[in-house]
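Support request, please re-run this one:
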Amino acid sequence: MTSPKKFNLEKSLADLEELVEELESGDLPLEKAMKKFEEGIKLTRGCQTALKEAEQKVEILLKSAGGEDLEEFEVDTDVE
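Re-run finished. Output below.
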C-alpha cells in the first residue's frame, strides 16, 4: 500500500505565485491561460486545505495544553 503524497505548502505557494505572474503577463494564448488558471485553482484549494488542517492542529494543541480559545482575526485585504 502506497502512502499518500504529502502536500508541500511552500512549494505550492511558490508555484501559485509563478502562475499568477504568467497569467498577468498577458502573453499566453487563451487555451494555455485557461489551463494555467485551472492549475491555479487546484493549487489554491490544496493550500486552503493545508492551512485549515494546520489551524485545526493548533486548536487541538491549545486545548490539550489548557490554553485559551483562539480569537478570530481579520485579514487586511487592502495590502498591495
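Residues 29-64 form one domain. Residues 66 and 74 are 25 Å apart (CA to CA).
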